[in-house]
Amino acid sequence: MRVSAELLNRNGGGAARAAAPDLVGGPSDRQTWSLLARSHDLARANKHLESQDSYGVVLTGVRGIGKSGLARAVVSSLGPKVHSLQLRNTVANGQTPYGCLGFLLARLPSEAVSSPTGILHAITSLIRAEAAGRQTVFIVDNAGGMDPMSTGVLLNLMATGTAKVIATVQRASDLPEDFHRLVLEEQLREVHLNSLTEEQTRQVLGSVLGHYVSSTLVGSLHAAVGGNPMLLHSLLDEQRHSGNLVLNDSVWTLRDRIKLEGATVVEDFVRSRLAREPQANRTVVEILACAQRATLMDLAAIFSTEVLVEMEESGLLAVDRCGEHWVSLRDPYLGEVVRGWLSTRRRRELRLMLFGPKEPELSRLAPQDLLSYAAWMHACEDEPAPSPAHALAAAGAALDDYDPNFAIQCTLSLDPKDHEWVAGQRLKAAAYLMLDLPLHAAQALDEVSEARLASQGPVEFAGITAAKCQAMTWIDGRSGMVPGVIAEASQTLDALEAVGKQPEADLLRARNRLTLCNYEYQIYMGEYADIIDALEAELDKDRDVDPEHWLMSGFFLVEARCMLGRELEAQQLARVMSKHLREVGSPGPLEEAFARHVFPVLLLSGQWRKCIELMRRAPSKPSRLQYRGAITELGIGMAYAYAGKPSSAIEPLRSAAAQLELRPAMNLVKVAYAATAFAYAQLGNSLEAGRYLDLFRTCRGTGTYFSESVAGFCAEMAGRWMGDPEVKQRLLARVHQDVAKQRFTTAGICLFGATVEGTDAEYRLLEEIAGNRQGPLAKISGDLARGSLNRSSRSLLAAADAAAALDLLVVEARCVAMALDFARDSGETTTARTAQLRLERLEQSVSALPIQPRSDAPVLTERERQIAKLAGKGVSNREIAMDIGVSVRTVEGHLYQVFTKLGVSSRGELNGLL
Hints:
Elements lengths: L2 H5 L31 H12 L5 E5 L6 H12 L3 E7 L2 H4 L7 H4 L10 H16 L3 E7 L6 H12 L3 E7 L7 H8 L3 E5 L5 H12 L2 E2 L1 H11 L3 H14 L2 E4 L2 E4 L9 H11 L4 H13 L2 E2 H5 L4 H9 L3 E3 L6 E4 L2 H10 L2 H12 L11 H13 L8 H13 L3 H9 L8 H14 L3 H9 L3 H5 L3 H16 L8 H18 L4 H22 L2 H12 L7 H17 L3 H17 L4 H17 L3 H9 L5 H21 L3 H17 L6 H14 L3 H12 L7 H17 L5 H14 L3 H11 L5 H11 L5 H15 L2 H13 L3 H17 L3 H15 L18 H11 L4 H8 L3 H15 L12
Parallel strand pairs: 1-4, 1-5, 2-3, 3-4, 6-8
Antiparallel strand pairs: 7-8, 9-11, 10-11
C-alpha cells in the first residue's frame, strides 16, 4: 500500500485508470528519442519476445517515456523474419467490439463475421496466410484501453502460437484482466521503462546535437522534464527556436534558465494529462504548483483522504515517509506549467485555502517553503507584498538557492523606511556579485547613507562593510582600497565598544565578520604568510561561539597551509573541516566556500582524482548549474590537464570557456582559456593552443591569487610545449616571487615546469624548495633534483614510481627518460633496459613525451615483443612458432634481434623486462 494510505490510515485507493492517449503531432522521431540510451531495455525486450515459453512482452512506463518507439525498435531489430501488425487503442475503440481489429475485420469475407467464432477463425487464417511461415508480432499501443472482444482474439492467437504480442501500457495493472494474469504468471514478461538518468540524457543529447554538450544544458533539461524523452525532445526544440540554446565555440549551452511557460508541447502534454482528472485532483495540483510542497495533514484537512491516496497511486503525488510527510508533485515540470496558467484571482483563492488569511509564521517556513510563498505573493499583483521580514528572509534563501534575480526581486519590495531595508541592500549586492556585476553591487551599497548605517547594529554594520569590500575587490582599480575600509570599520567598532551600549556578543560577531573580510582579502592577494599564525589561532577557539566564523577560518587555513608547503597538513585539516561541515547541515554557501578552498589543495598536491570527485559532489540543481556549472566543468578540466590527460581535459575546458563567455564569474574565463591552451599543447595541437593563448592574452581584470597563478602557469606551460624559448625565464621569475612570499607549493610546481632542461643551480633550488614542502609531489621534486645533480638513475626512478602512484604519467615519463640517459651514461645496462621498456609503455599512454632521451635505443617491433614475452615465460621456439603461425627459423631470427637490441644473453633475462 502506498505511503499516503499508510499515513492517513486508509484502506485502498482509487481505481486505476487507463492510460490517456498519446499526444498526436510533432516530429516523427519524438517517440524514438530515447532509443539512443535504451540498448539495455531493447536487449531485454528482445530476449523475452524470442523466448520459447513467452507469449510476448509488456512495456510499461509513464506517458512519453518511449514505449511505442521501443516496441517498433524491437520489431525492427528482428528484421524480415517476423510479420508485424500494429494495433492502436483509442477511447472510441475501447467502447467498440473488435475496435482495434477493425482494419482486419474489413478484410474478412462477409460470411466469416456472423459469429465470434467465425471471426476468430478467419482472422487466424488471414494472419497465418500473410505471415507465410514467419512469426507474427502484434504491437498493441495503449493496451489498457482494449475492448473485451479484441482481448479475446489476441489471447487465442497467443495461446495457439499464431502470434506474439508487444503491449504498451503505463502500468501492468491497467491491462485487461486476462492480460494482467499472464503478466503475473510471467507468460507475458514486463519490461519497465524508467525516465532517462542524467547520464543517459547526456548520451542522447550528445548523439543528437553532434557537438559537446555542457553540463549546464544536460542538467537543466533533465531536471526540467524529469528525464521524460518525449518532453526532452520537445523542450530542446523550444529552446532552439527561442534562441536560449546556443552553439558557442562548438559547445551547446544555454543563455538563460529554462522556462516551461510557453513551451507548447509540454503545456499540451500537461493539459492532456489533467484533462480527465476530477476537479478536486486538479485543485490539489494547483495548490502544490504554487506551494511546491505541503504537509500531508494540511492537505488532508482540505481534501478527502481518498483523493490524496488515489493521486499518489496514479503517479501524480510523491509523499515523504519521514518527518512531516511532505507531499509534492511527482513531476516538477507539471507544477511549473500549471503555475503559469493560474490567474491572480485563482492564486489568491489557493493561498487562502492553504494558509488562511494570515501570513504564515516565518519561523515555521523552511527555505524551500519560504521561496514558494514569496513567489506566490509576488505573482498576485493586487495583493500586498510579503512582510519586510519575509521578503528579507526570502532574498537570503534565494541566494542560497542560486537565484540572484529572485533575490533582487524580493529586496525591491522593501521600502527604504523599513528596518530590513539596509540588510536587503546587502543581499541585493550579493545577488549582483553572483551575476558578476560588481559595479551594481557597489551602487546598491552606496545607497545606504552613513546616517542610516550608523542606526544599524554592529553586526549589520560589519556585514555592509564586508559586502563593500567584496564588491571593491572585483572592480578594477579599487581592490587596493579594501585594507583601508576594513581599518576604518574596525575603528568604528572600537568606538561602539567604548560607549558600552552594544551587546558583547554582537560586537564579537561584528569583529569576526571584519576579520574574515581581512582574511578573504589576504587570500585574494596571496599573502598567506601574513595571516597563517592568526588562522592557526582561530582553529584553537571554541567553534560553538561563532560556528560560521570558525568554519570559514578553517577553510582559509586549508588553502594557506597548502600554499606555504604544508600540503599534508592541509589535506588533514580539509578532512576535519568536511566532517564539521556535515555536522552543521552543509548549507549551500559554506559548501561552495569549502570546495573553493579545498580544490587548490587537491590540485596542487597531485590528487587529481579527488579534485574531480570534489567537483562532481556539487548539487546539479538547475539554478546552481546556471551560475556555477561552468566552474564545475572548469575544475574537472583543470584536474585532467594537470594530470597530463589532455584528451579528457579538452571537452570540459572548452565547455567551461564557452559558458564563462556567456556568464562571466570571478574573472575565471582567463583560467579556462589558459588551461585549454595547455591541454591542446600537450596533444601537439599548436593551432588550437595558440588560439586559446591569444584569447587568454586579451582578457582583462584580475582574479584571486590562486586563479591568476593557475592561469599563468597553464599559459606558460602551453608555451613550453609549443617551444617558446622565453618561457623558462618567465617561470623562474614567478618562482622567485613565490619564494619571497613563502608560497613554496606554487614555486615548486613552476620550477618543476621550468627545469625540463635545467641547470645545476636550478636543480639545487628545486631541491631546496622541495625541502619546504610535504607530500608526494615534494618527494618527486626532491628525487628528480637529486637525481639530476648526482646523475642518479635510482633517484629518478624513485621519482617515477611516486608519480606512477598518483597516475601522473607525463611526470613519470619525464623522470624515466632522464633515468634512461643517466643509466646509459654510467653503463647500468639492466637499469637502462628496464627504463627503456618502461618508457615504451608510457609512450602508449601519453600524447607526447615531455622530453626525449638523448639517444634513442632500438625499439622492439610488435612481433619481436610478442615472441620475447613467450620466450621469457619458458616457451620453446617450436611451440612459439606453432602458436603464432610462423616458422621456427623466423622465431630464431626475431629472438636474435631481441637479444641484440636489449643486450641480454639468455631467455631468463627477458622475464620481467617485458
